[in-house]
Design goal:
The protein is mostly helical and 489 residues long. 75% of the residues lie in helices and 1% in strands. It has helices at 16-45, 52-60, 71-79, 85-114, 116-127, 129-140, 144-172, 181-207, 213-245, 247-250, 260-277, 293-315, 323-346, 348-352, 359-371, 373-384, 388-417, 428-444, 452-471, 478-488, and strands at 177-178, 449-450. The protein has a two-stranded antiparallel sheet with strand order 1-2. Helix 9 packs across helix 17 (388-417). The N and C termini lie far apart (86 Å).
């Protein structure tokens, strides 16, 4: 009888692609297990690392911006006092900045324990809580324009400003940064779908053959409600895809790149390992140094291993807060941000009534910048630490949640509240700006790596949109102009 091959292993039947995927999953699992083991060792080494004093110190002294936390109670108080609305707007805008940083720090602590994928999902969800609360309040008060402009502005801010600054500051100290290109492409495809869901109702409103806009309204509203339900179903499918069926894709770690200052140290380690594995032959050495060779080769392997362990230990981060403390900090920060944002939105009319600043600029640019301060601070912080998967997960994940969850939810809520004006027929200028932003982001993430120049490109497009919003006339819509021209033809 012919005996089976002794060297047979189930992995030998896998293709190259399957084997690569299996190796990546094993690498991600081993990386997570190594991080958990390192956390347990740190707790055993320092049993007082999670004392109340240390956790308070880590929470409030992690940034000098926390000195501005005093503006949070002041901003809430002046909202109920007889104070000029401009002062209310400025004080609450300043108060949101340190609160956003505190929220981002809590999300980062959760990400260290839960992983970059779930951490990015948590950050995007709580970061968008401000937009959701502000949109509901504005919808109840019939501020439909503020709802639309703030939501579109939040998507533009995350895609262009937040992602652009994250890529720039992360790439300044590194030659390039890598991220999970499969995850980024899935997010970009969903964003393309979301932008298309806004283009179609806008085009329907512009070219529908009706005698008046009042006759077009019911059809556009019904179309928007149907599209919103479909988008909510798509977002539910995406969550099932991300957290259940294809979760291993999101757990694949991306390649890390050391800073330029550390490149020489890493190269020295690699050179030492190469010399230890392949020592020079005797005929390559000069006679007067031949006697020193055995001593040198005996020492280099130990030195190389020790230096490599020091580099890996320096790159490993340990959470400074317990899980329940991080969650509590996250909830309190989100609640305070929502209160300050509500006070800030209530003072918009006082700022725009003079005509110096348009409502379009405030709703499309100013409010989203302040409201997205949580995503902005967290995404830039983790990008500097070369955690581009988490940074891109925050930026694209937040934009995706707004476009696939919050906007459709607001339309359905307007349906329940009898607000027929709340539909997906957004202003043409806003739709075109969003479409261009999605196209640029799609082009930049194709190769799976980023550098500082790409951040400049993203921020430049955002600046162009901001300039256009500054000069955009009030009560004007490109949709109306196009629709009138189409009817004349």
């Amino acid at each position: 009888m012919q005996e089976p091959h002794q060297g047979f292993h189930p992995a030998d039947t896998l293709s190259d692609g399957d084997r690569d995927g299996e190796e990546k999953r094993e690498t991600g699992a081993s990386s997570q297990e190594g991080q958990d083991q390192h956390l347990k060792q740190s707790e055993q080494t320092d049993p007082h690392m999670y004392s109340i004093a240390n956790q308070l110190r880590a929470t409030f002294l992690n940034s000098w911006l926390n000195l501005l936390l005093i503006f949070s109670p002041v901003g809430i108080a002046v909202n109920y006092a007889n104070v000029t609305p401009i002062a209310v707007f400025i004080i609450n805008a300043v108060a949101i900045i340190p609160l956003a940083g505190l929220l981002g720090y809590a999300c980062e602590e959760i990400a260290l324990r839960a992983g970059e994928t779930l951490g990015g999902l948590v950050q995007a969800s709580f970061g968008n809580a401000v937009e959701l609360i502000v949109s509901i309040i504005a919808l109840v008060h019939d501020e439909i324009d503020i709802v639309r402009e703030s939501l579109i502005g939040s998507i533009l801010s995350n895609l262009l400003l937040v992602l652009g600054t994250s890529v720039f500051f992360g790439g300044v100290t590194r030659l390039r940064q890598y991220f999970n290109v499969k995850v980024a492409q899935i997010s970009s495809c969903l964003l393309a779908l979301a932008s298309g869901s806004l283009v179609i109702p806008a085009a329907f409103l512009a070219w529908a053959q009706r005698e008046s806009a009042a006759e077009q309204g019911p059809d556009v509203t019904a179309l928007s409600r149907g599209v919103s339900i479909l988008l909510l179903l798509v977002y539910g499918c995406f969550l099932f895809f991300q957290l259940k069926t294809h979760s291993e894709i999101y757990k694949t770690p991306s390649q890390k790149v050391p800073k330029r200052s550390e490149t020489r140290r890493i190269n020295s380690v690699k050179a030492s390992e190469a010399m230890a594995l392949n020592p020079p032959q005797p005929f390559e050495l000069r006679p007067n140094h031949s006697s020193e060779q055995p001593e040198t080769t005996a020492v280099r392997p130990a030195q190389a291993t020790e230096q490599k362990e020091k580099v890996e230990k320096a790159d490993t981060e340990v959470p400074k807060l317990r899980k329940w403390v991080a969650v509590l900090t996250l909830i309190i920060s989100t609640a305070l941000v929502a209160l300050c944002a509500e006070a800030m939105v209530g003072s918009i009319d006082a700022i725009t009534e003079g005509g110096t600043v348009s409502r379009t600029f405030v709703g499309l640019i100013l409010l989203p910048i302040v409201g997205n301060a949580a995503e902005h601070s967290a995404a830039v912080r983790v990008a500097i630490k070369d955690k581009m998967d988490l940074s891109i997960g925050i930026c694209l994940g937040s934009s995706m949640q707004i476009s696939l969850l919050i906007i459709p939810f607001i339309v359905v809520l307007g349906w329940i509240l009898g607000k027929g004006e709340m539909n997906l027929a957004f202003d043409g200028f806003q739709v075109i700006a969003l479409f261009l932003a999605v196209i640029l982001v799609n082009y930049l993430i194709l190769d799976g790596e980023s550098h500082w120049l790409e951040g400049i490109l993203l921020c430049t497009l955002y600046t162009i949109i901001a300039l256009a919003a500054w000069f955009y006339p009030e009560n004007s819509s490109i949709i109306d102009v196009i629709g009138e021209a189409a009817r004349r033809l």
